[in-house]
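Hello Y.,

Per our agreement to keep a running log of every chain we model this quarter, I'm adding this entry. I've kept the format consistent with earlier entries: sequence first, then predicted structure.
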Amino acid sequence: MPLPRLTLRPDVSHGLLDGAWWPRCGVLELELPALVGSLDPGFGTVTRVTVDTAAWPDAPRSVMTPGHAIEVALTDGDIMAHAITLDVGPVHRWQLLVVPPAQPLGTAVWLLSAVADPEIRLTAPEMLALAENRESCGRPAAGGRPGQNGPHDRRRMPLRPE
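Predicted structure for the entry above:
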C-alpha cells in the first residue's frame, strides 16, 4: 500500500496548519484533482485554493476537478510559502503545508506525521525549517519552534514517523 500523501489534523480548522499534502509533482492542474478527491465529501466542496507563486509559478487561474472548476488565487506573501489554502464550502478555510515533491521520503513522512500532531502549532515555513534542522542533526527534531530552548531540547517529546 502506498504511503498516504495527505494528513489532516484531528482538530481541522483550529490551528495554523490544518494538515499536510505531499504532491507528486509541481504541476497544480495535475495534483489538485487528486488532493480534492482524497478529501471526505462530508467536508464540503473545495471552491477555491490560494497558492504561492514561488512554489507554483505556472499555476492556472482555475483547475477542473470531477464535477466542478476550482478557482486558483495566487499570492506572493511569505506566510503562504509552502502552503495551500483550501476554501471549502461557504465558511471553512483550511491551510495545508505543501511538502515539496522532491523532499526525501523520510523527511516527507516525518512532516506529514508532525503536522497532524495537535501539539505542534507552527507555520509552513517553520515546519520546513524544523525538518531541515532535523536532517542536518541526523536525528528527530524537537517539538517546539525552531531554536526555542535549543534544537535538541529534551523537555519536548521528539516526533517520529509512525
